[in-house]
Amino acid sequence: MGERPGRLQGKRAFVTGAGQGMGRAIAIAFAQEGAQVIAASRTASKMDDLLGINPAITPLSLDVTDAPAVKSAIADAGPLDILVNCSAFVHAGTLLECEEEAFAESLEQNVTSAYRTIRAALPGMIGKGGGAIINIASVASSISGTANRAAYGTSKAALIGLTKAVARDFIAKGIRCNALCPGTTASPSLEDRINATDDPEATRRAFIARQPMGRLGTVEEMAAAALYLASDEAGFMTGQLLVVDGGQTL
């Protein structure tokens, strides 16, 4: 007997934030399951090895805050079956420690970028008769108030609102739109934030202590959850939040 076809066989996916961490893991997981993947990141050099990992991955240099570039990139990609919005900016601090510029950047990077990609991708998806959109939100959002994440939590709450709006408005067109809400996940971005503190080891222990499971999540675990949301297995699921957080919000 031959190998079973991949769960995303014949699908075309577009993944933002694919240069590192969760976005990169999602791009690799999707390609392994048979999808043709356009992996987009502002830093093209971070994706130099992706084609070698899987020839089904096409790296693309893209700044998701550049509206014309996003529109052009989605148009060039052709009608998509799957869109994953994983590009993100994490501002650390309370509201009083967040200048207006950083607040605006949080909304631009974490919400408006998804508005752009979804708006560009929807007509092609509708034309094909359906599609799956996965927005990478967070438990730091409308789900839970997280210390020192005022701008980030606000932006991810807005992304959840966008997820539900798209799910409601386009359900009759065959579009599914769900949000993956990770807890604290080991990634290069988290490492950078830990190392930027005065006591990295104490910060690391505090991040781990958030989860009753006593460890951080992995990007591969989050990619597996995104794969489920993108696959036909989740065909009866839309407008929902998939929380994968090691018990952080219990």
Please provide a brief summary of the model.
Helices cover 43% and strands 15% of the residues. The chain has 250 residues and is of the alpha/beta class.
Commentary on this structure:
By secondary structure, the protein is α/β, with parallel strands linked by helices. The protein has helices at residues 21-32, 50-53, 67-77, 100-128, 150-170, 188-195, 200-209, 219-230; strands spanning 12-15, 36-41, 57-61, 82-85, 131-136, 175-182, 241-244. It has one domain: Rossmann fold (3-Layer(aba) Sandwich). Helix content is 43%, strand content 15%. The model has no long low-confidence stretch (mean pLDDT 95).
Helix/strand layout:
Elements: E1 12-15, H1 21-32, E2 36-41, H2 50-53, E3 57-61, H3 67-77, E4 82-85, H4 100-128, E5 131-136, H5 150-170, E6 175-182, H6 188-195, H7 200-209, H8 219-230, E7 241-244
Parallel strand pairs: 1-2, 1-4, 2-3, 4-5, 5-6, 6-7
Helix pairs in contact: 1-8, 3-4, 4-5
Give the overall shape, derived from the CA principal axes: globular
- Overall structural class, as computed from helix and strand content, comes to alpha/beta
Please count the helical segments: 8
How is the largest sheet built, in terms of strand order? 3-2-1-4-5-6-7
Which strand-content bin applies to the residues?
5-15%
Q: Poorly predicted ranges (pLDDT <50, ≥5 residues)?
A: none
